Amino acid sequence: MIRIADRVFTLDTPDTTYMFRVLPEGHLEHLYYGASLGDPAEKTDEEIQEDAEALGEKREFPQGNAISWDEEHQSLCMEDLRSEISTTGKGDLRDTMISLIHADGGRTSDFLYESSEIREGKEPLETLPSSYADPADGKAEHAETALTNASAVSADASDGKEELAETALTDASPVSANPAHGKVEQLVVTLREASGDCRLELHYYVFEDCDVITRTVKLINCGSGKIQIRRLLSAQLDFETAGYKMSVFTGAWAREMQRHELDISGGRVVSSTTAGISSNACNPFVMLYPEGTSETAGGCYGINLIYSGNHYESAEVSRFGKTRFLTGINPEGFSWQLLPGEIFEAPEAVMTWSGSGFTGMSLHMHHFVREHIVRGEWKHKARPVLLNSWEAAYFKFDEKKLLRLAKAGKDAGIELFVMDDGWFGTRDDDTQALGDWTVNKKKLPDGLKGLADKIHALGMDFGLWVEPEMISANSDLYRAHPDWAMQIPGRQHAEGRHQMLLDLANPEVVDYMIDCMSDVFSSADINYVKWDMNRVMSDVYSPWLASQRDDAECQGETAHRYILGYYRMLKTLTEKFPHILFEGCASGGCRFDLGVLCCCPQIWASDDTDPVERSTIQEGYSYGYPMSVVSAHVSASPNHQTLRETPLDTRFNVAVFGVFGCEMNLCDMDHREFQELKEKILLYKAWRDVLQNGDFYRGRTGRIHEWTCVAPDRKKAVGMILQEKAVPNAPFEQFRARGLDGGLRYHFYSLEQKRDIRSFGDLVNTASPVHVKPGSFLHRLIADFVTMPGEQEEVRASGRLLMDAGVKLAPGYAGTGYNENTRYFADGCSRMYFMEAD
Ligand code: GLA
Q1: Ligand 1: which of 388, 431, 585, 591 to mutate, most ligand atoms within 8 Å of CB?
Q2: How many Å lie between the centroid of ligand 1 and the Cα of residue 532?
Q3: Which residues of 361-372 are buried (b: 16+ CB within 10 A; e: fewer)?
Q4: Contact status, residue 61 vs residue 75, Cβ threshold 8 Å
Q5: pTM of the model
Q6: Residue 167 above 50 pLDDT?
Q7: Neighbours of 796 (CB within 10 A)
Q8: What crossing angle do the helices spanning 671-693 and 399-412 adopt, rounded to 10°?
Q9: What does the H/E/C string look like for 491-546?
Q10: Which of 73, 239, 598, 743 has the most CB atoms within 10 Å of its CB?
Q11: Distance between CA 18 and CA 29 in Å, rounded?
Q12: How many CA within 13 A on the CB side of residue 788?
């Protein structure tokens, strides 16, 4: 709930309290964010005042050589104030949330309290996707506003009340299965700049069901001159002490979401990107926590941004030993002209806190993403098992080859066949044809419809790949509209994967691509679309913007305008084709963020399908995102990205914890492996509900990965243990489940193990009466008839025991003997365990 008690604001969720107040001078002092300080509804106004008094900092004199706010208020030094927002020019030398150039050229801003109100429900951002409250409870409005192309919406300059200029409200409203999850309250606090030329609205949304608070700010130009925005970040958190740790998730192509812990003990630490998209180099999701917080214990803040463009997260320790955290649009390369009457909205930041370590924080985030980010028809619908053609065929295919693959898929139990890149224009490799979205008749003589019908006739759904934001220099589109590419006239243009970005700042380009994609999506019965984006930004320049404005500075708006254009295109198309399951992608996980997830219920997490690498990557995502949005596929061994060989078991065990699919040439699999995959797909279908809708828990991470996914009612769970690198002479191993109901008794079991005899190499000779040369015809022949049995676990135990003590597993092979009760656990081996309550 939200409570205002005489200029003290309390935002309350079951486990957390967030408090700030108005100081006598008019600034907002941040008081507290952390463990719940008790239900504010049960406190009197006086008690809330007392709380604020106890939490507020006491001041008597100026500090050192810090600047005082003014002559009369010597003790108020902005540099040492824990504030809700910070600005440049009044002595706050820390990284600031807001930096403006006013019409008179002054760069000082000083926002003072004007008014506040509590509103029911969730207002959409007019220009960006935002979290939403389920409208089914009748209290909240869905963020279903058609996006305008410009971020600025007009405001009535006389009273500062905004009137939305270009909003076209659609009547499409999302379908949700769970009306209980919608309750959201909103606090709006309005501040006025001391000169009177602009107002700032702070919007806070409280999502009680998942202990999440989100924040946005809107800047309204209510003066008569132009304001240049140099930075307008989305959220600020000021802590009273130093010594925090910040976990950031860095990476590269095929190596996304590697967790790194940074010390915030002095100076400034920044995680940011100018890639133009959220990037695989640093995800916008970060964690902040004091020394000592672990996976299972201690306080942990999780912070994310609902934005897909350049983002910025910084943590800084001030001269006075306080820590400031900021998140929002990256100010590097950004500027925005705000004319009288216009409004600029910053993207929405998401914050949560848990006292139960990383796990507690992750569970809040998972819940929030599932209920308030993912929306539409597919929100809670079972995801089909898909087969993607990319690693099976790359660009080399025709209809015959695809149908052969699809038939094998059908036989294996695949439910959705996806044709990846290569089906349009002259797209025989990645140097050409992006922008030419007409079918390649040489490859598909009966067109998309012909292929789609044949796939449907096999009893499968059909999906395809597109990359609508791109243009190849070698394309008919570029030959017709060279000015539609993002490039600087007269300069040589840098390329990524031989392609350029379309100028999505240009509304005409966005409209054209919406029409073009609408034609593709309605040309056949298409059930799924993989929306790819395969290069980061360079030569950031909008020829369209240059044609509209004569100030050189306007190009500082291009990167953000691109994202607004992208959102308009994505939102329009996903709403126009609500039955299609959209999957986001950007060279794997180069744009894995909450903005994309507002429209696409899942994202291809990485082009790396090696299960050993994937276990770290998926674990990385799991800190901030539920596994139900992380796509994962079984692919061939040796793996195409690392050439590592891994058993099918492991490839399957890792992929099923995400949105499961296959991406390999099933026609080339040997019979036994194909049958094994078929059985596994059946197994997945039996446990899909738990794996897709369950809560994901990390156990050990590192050399051993230990996961548990627990059904919402905690009666069923699936566990997994994976060993990256074997340790010699180490037979002991155990599995510790997490998230079970301690009071229930579970049947804990694993499936029968059958090991190919060839995986023991020439050890076969320790048992064979005749000598067998490894790799020989005889070796292969024996392997066809003899498999080595392995351990099978089966035990009944309480949830308490399974979680706190763990099950001691059958001994692992340790170089001294092997029989049917031994665990074969070489490099990259894994096991899956099933738990069912009695
Ligand atoms: C990107 C994607 C891949 C595949 C190719 C096709 O790299 O991440 O999955 O779709 O593009 O060109």
Answers
A1: 585
A2: 7
A3: bbbbbbbbbbbb
A4: yes
A5: 0.95
A6: no
A7: 11
A8: 70
A9: CCCCCECCEEEECCCCHHHHHHHHHHHHHHHHCCCCCEEEECCCCCCCCCCCHHHH
A10: 598
A11: 12
A12: 22
